[in-house]
Amino acid sequence: MGSFALFVSALLCIASVLSSYGIVGVEGYLKYDTGSGIVDGKLNVHLVAHSHDDVGWLKTIDQYYVGSNNSIQGACVENVLDSVVMALRRDPSRKFIFAEMAFFSRWWEEQSVEIQEEVRQLVDAGRLEFVNGGWCMHDEATTHYIDMIDQTTLGHQLIKSQFNKTPRAGWQIDPFGHSAVQAYLLGARNICGSRTFGSSSQIFANAFPVHYSPPDGFHFEVNDDFNPVQDNPLLFDFNVEARVNDFIAAAMIQANVTRTNHIMWTMGDDFQYQYAESWFKQMDKLIHYVNKAVRQLEYLMGRRSTSNANTDGLGNALGIAQHHDAVTGTAKQHTTNDYAKRLAIGASETETVVDSALSCLLDSKLNGQCAGSTVIFSQVALHHCDFV
Question: Which of 139, 137, 133 is nearest to 155 (CA)?
């Protein structure tokens, strides 16, 4: 990679960054470091978690909220908000933006006093942020400017009365075209400007290169067809290096059409985050491993070496093999191959353990202190066995 380095963070607007925390362990529980912050002179990738929730489209607003009529579209905004709040409460480094107050107002009225207080804390900490903040994301070409102001005011009144906040970022990601009126209104309501351009710029705008979704391969809704970051070195399909390389390649493609060294990935799409943990967990891993790779140029090596062989692998494989789709032969062929691979590896590791144990037992000089295997033990091949 030469002198090129890429740093990833999840942030909102210009200056908000995720807090830092360290690694607890490699095997078992691992706490991901997602607080790199801005690095001058490097390509900075900002992950912005969002869900675009149309206030009526293929379904009515009520159907979208409660999740009915799913034969047309599987979407439930109530689930989105429930799931996002739970995921944010689970990890203080996570952030999320939400725009459509017509949905949020319904959800808010249904929450207990305790949940409402926790959500206020999330908003105060900047971890749940309302962008645009209108009752909907209004169209720009066909709406009258008074109606644009009125619907935005309706949403802002709710935010102000419940959270004492005023949205500081615009979020017009799906209207069919843009208008000068919208730009004027954003500037008039003190949406974030850019210090880079000084007083000559009222607002700082960004145009997405393709869509308001992430690059291909980085959609993490639970029912999406994606490759998760598999970072457990004790399991098969370990792919940290491959996923890091995919991330860097996608970032470079976007960097080639971006003027600055800051690019934004909009991590979400229509009615996404119905299971928010799926998104946040994958983003946590990507931030952690991409930054680790560009700083140290090293990755975990994957499944551990058999030098630490034990009988756990065989016991685990035998247990899995008793599954009703394993021992019966009703699984797919690639799954059956995986069962066989696990049994073979487990048997090999167990033979190593047995070799070492026999060495201790047969060599009285060792007094039970085994440095290595000196006797090779192999099972007798049983070609036929009957009950007697």
Answer: 133
